[in-house]
Amino acid sequence: MEPKDEPIPRWRVGSGSSLRYGAFVNSLSSLTPRAEEKEKVTISPRRAYVAVAVLCYINLLNYSERYTIAGVLPNIQEFFQISDSMAALIQTVFGYLGDRYNRKYIMIGGLSVWLVTAAGSSLVTKSYFWLLMLLRAMVGIGEASYSTIAPTIIGDLFVGTKRSAMILVFYLFIPVGSGLGYIAGAGVAALTGDWHWSLRITPILGVVGLVLLVFLCPNPPRGAAETHGEGVKVESSYQEDVKYLLKNKSYVWSSLGVTATAFLTGALGFWTPTFLSRARVNQGLQLLCVKEPCDSTDSYIFGAVTVVTGILGACLGSGLSRWFGEKVPNVDPLICAVGLLGAAPCLFIAIFVASASIPTTYVFIFIGELLISLNWAVMADILLYVVIPTRRSTAEALQISVCHLLGDAGSPYLVGVISDALRRTKPGNPSWSFHSLKYSLLVCPFVGILGGLFFLMTSVYITEDRKKAALLVEGTSQPQQGATSEPPVELSNEEKTLNIES
Hints:
Layout: E1 19-20, H1 21-31, H2 45-71, H3 73-80, H4 84-88, H5 94-98, H6 103-121, H7 129-157, H8 160-192, H9 201-216, E2 233-235, H10 238-247, H11 249-282, H12 297-324, H13 331-353, H14 358-372, H15 375-386, H16 392-408, H17 410-423, H18 432-440, H19 443-474, E3 490-491, E4 497-499
Antiparallel strand pairs: 1-3, 2-4
Helix pairs in contact: 2-7, 2-8, 2-9, 2-11, 6-7, 6-9, 7-8, 7-16, 8-12, 8-15, 11-12, 11-15, 11-16, 11-17, 11-18, 11-19, 12-13, 12-14, 12-15, 13-14, 13-15, 13-19, 17-18
């Protein structure tokens, strides 16, 4: 089988000038076969559910591996004798391919890179910290190829409430995997006395995931769920895809909101166990770690909190979306906005209470993480229904690139840089390492407020953008005249060909 998807008989729609939105729908509608002439879905429901289970398993390992580092961060800092900013560096194209080539092969290649480099990072010795950073960067590349494409496959296997439910399940494994990463990383390091072993567990389990992916995960036609298995394909350049996405206001504003959410989860996920450990030292509850293995109490507790709040928050957010979806068409971005705006004051209180009471700090962390977790499944669903199927992988890739660069990859480093800068103002004060990190974490509540505002802006445009995407895929009706003040959507002159796989 060739890596590139081979379209089977196709209809072509040509135009010498740009197509207005209504004209495109009419042309598509006239070429769409009658319902009785359509082929049956080739992927059975059972196989679709098995595919989701495989993707969820790999997603669990993905985030477990990512946050294993955070669970043993004090050990790594002591081992390499590095500062906060240098430690944060450890945490720090596929969409275009995913919209045009066999997504299964791309995921297999990315997962293979991830397994090799993740295992290799566990072999780095004390004098090669730069190699650890390089390997962790390669791990990120492998993860990106998977996390960019996997949600689009789920989007092409299910539609409507089933799609929302499957997306919920898939994204539940982000907080669950993250929490297990803290616990497993700290536990293995404590058991073996060497943090290197904590990085070897997920690659071993990942080999199982790779085998399951090869044999059990299909590559459905793009848009298969919306077109009853036929699939939709638009031949367009990468530049046209990007132009289309930038004109999609819901996509742009929600991507900024996703980036703010990623900023919070990245900074808090990476630094909270270390921050609470330093808080205990500051209160005299435990001794400063000067030799491995360090006390991992907060890695265990924070890991458990992350798992519980992730499950509860994601289920609650998805439930609210279903309950109010028919009455409030723009409910999804409103849920995300409420989650981030509500989490901001909780995080602010938790940061300052840490110097006086660890249990109270955990209470506010629990509430804050619960509110942030409302967003997980809802954010993903927004992208799937405001972007047409043939551009979802590109949309996922651009969104993930921005949210990683400015969000969960950049935020730990930013917090570390601020912490180091503040610590240098009082180099002789032992307790200042706690206070410098405390003040640097204050950037998180403000980013949470900003993210909430981004999602409020998304709520203004999302209803119309969702209708436009549905009409472009279904091609069964025209938009009502005067339904919106926005001008009709235009397709560029270059976007001339519509391929429908049957």
